[in-house]
Write a structure and sequence with these properties.
By secondary structure, this protein is an alpha+beta fold. It has helices at residues 3-9, 76-89, 118-128, 163-168, 212-223, 230-256, 260-271, 277-311; strands at 17-21, 30-34, 39-45, 49-55, 61-68, 93-98, 108-109, 131-132, 135-136, 142-143, 153-154, 157-161, 173-176, 187-190. It folds into two domains: 3-190, Deoxyribonuclease I, Chain A, CATH 3.60.10; 206-311, no CATH class. The strands form four sheets. It has a six-stranded mixed sheet with strand order 3-4-5-6-12-8. Helix 2 (76-89) packs parallel to helix 3 and helix 7 (260-271) runs antiparallel to helix 8 (277-311).
Length: 320
């Protein structure tokens, strides 16, 4: 699929910038979607690199280089040489992506203990003088998803920064999500530390809005009599609707909805501090048991919402 078609399928996300490189058949291909008030331009794109120039509102200029590393060990040295050229040309740079290269023995669990291509990669590290961005979350970002003695876990997805980037964002951090919808995990870079989420009340989710119970809660709350000014009456009724709908969601979310936040948190905890193949296998087993069940739940409720749309005259259209 070419990146234009892929971007069109994701157009409902309303990105402010889109850059990419077409795949070769079913392999390769890069797609970068951006959401920013800053001016973002693509300076270079290829099947291995997409270099973006970001003009911030405060006048600063920085660059983000998205990388897809070379799977073939014999071709990786050329990738590091090209990457070195970019870092010599541009100083304030974040390099992030799938490097397809291990940096140390602690980045791998299972399989051969030999790290192929390490010498060339370390030569690039030392000559470029980049620093690795620290991470939190599950250590390994890729798995062959097998079990037993055939299981392999590796940390292939990372981020590096130049000295100038570090001077502007010294507290940057990468968050590893659990391996879920692919053999790779998603990683997210934060220029400032991510704040810990509070234990706020469960939020109302869109999946619940088509149920008669919810409609009844809203109607009954609105019919109740409230003494006071019009503004006070509105405020009190909105408060009733909010609290009653939250309670309804708390009671029904386990059987009707999919608590993605809870599922993701569980997988993150399962993937942290893996030091043995047995712990790694337990992690993969958690993924293999939870993800298919969630996909079935998602498919069920997607179909139910489509059926209700047809029934009530609000049939959803596919994204073209």
């Amino acid at each position: 699929m070419d990146f234009v078609s892929a971007a069109a399928k994701l157009s409902f996300l309303n990105p402010t910038s889109i850059f990419g490189w077409n795949s070769n058949g079913s392999s390769g291909g890069l797609l970068v979607l951006g959401w920013s008030n800053d001016v973002v331009k693509c300076l270079f794109s290829s099947k291995k690199f997409i270099l973006c120039n970001i003009y911030a509102i405060n006048g600063s200029i920085k660059h983000v280089l998205f990388l897809y590393g070379e799977p073939q060990v014999g071709n990786r040295k050329l990738i590091w040489e090209q990457l070195q050229w970019f870092l010599e040309e541009f100083k304030n740079v974040l390099v992030i992506g799938d490097f397809n290269q291990l940096e140390s023995g602690s980045d791998k669990l299972g399989g051969s203990t030999r790290i192929r291509g390490l010498d060339d990669f370390l030569d690039w590290r030392f000559s470029s003088n980049v620093s690795e961005v620290p991470f939190s979350g599950p250590r390994f970002t890729w798995s062959n998803m097998r079990e037993g003695s055939e299981l392999i876990l590796e940390r292939l997805d990372r981020a590096y920064i130049t000295e100038e980037w570090f001077n502007h964002s010294p507290n940057g951090k990468v968050i590893h999500e659990p391996i879920a919808c692919s053999d790779h995990a998603a990683i997210t870079y934060y220029a400032t530390p991510k704040t810990t989420s509070s234990n706020r009340p469960y939020q109302i989710e869109s999946w619940c809005l088509s149920f008669p119970d919810v409609i009844g809660i809203v109607q009954n709350s609105w019919r109740e009599e409230v003494q006071g000014s019009h503004m006070f009456q509105l405020s009190r009724k909105l408060e009733w609707v909010r609290s009653r709908l939250q309670q309804w969601c708390l009671v029904n979310k386990k059987s009707w909805g999919i608590n993605w936040r809870k599922m993701t948190k569980f997988l993150q905890v399962s993937g942290e501090n893996i030091t043995s193949l047995q712990e790694g296998e337990n992690y993969i087993q958690c993924i293999n048991s939870i993800i298919p069940e969630s996909k079935l739940g998602y498919a069920f409720w997607r179909q139910r919402m489509k059926t209700n749309g047809i029934r009530f005259g609000d049939c959803p259209t596919s994204v073209m």
